[in-house]
Amino acid sequence: MTGESMGVLSRQSGSKASVGALTILAVLSTCLYGSISLLSWRFDFGSVATDRPIIGVLCLFAVAFAAYLVAIRIAWRAPESRPTLKLLIATAIVFRVVMLFSLPIQEVDIYRYLWDGTVSTAGVSPFRFSPEQVSSADLATTGDASLERLVALRDHHPALAEILRRVHFPDLPTIYPPTSQAVFAAASLTTPGEASLLTRLFIMKAWFIGFDIATLFVVIALLRLCKKPASLCVIYAWCPLLMKEVANSGHLDAVAVFVTTLAVYFVVRFLLWHRLPSCDEEKTANWKLARLIYLGLIGVVLALAVGAKLYPVVLAPLFLFVIAKTCGWRIVLVPTTVFAVSTVVLLSSMFVGEKASPGKQLHSDPSRGVVTFLRRWEMNDYLFLLVIENLKPTAGRGAHEIAWFTVVPESGRQAVVNLVSSQFDIAAPEVPFFVARALTAALFIIVAMVIAWRTASDDISRFCEGVFLTLAWFWLLCPTQNPWYWTWALPLLPFARSRVWLAVSGLVLVYYLRFWLSYHFAESAVLGTPYTGAAFYDFVVTWIEFAPWFVLLTVGFVSRKQTSKWLDMPQYEGRTV
Question: What is the C-alpha to C-alpha distance for residues 350 and 366, in angstroms, rounded to an integer?
Answer without folding.
Answer: 5
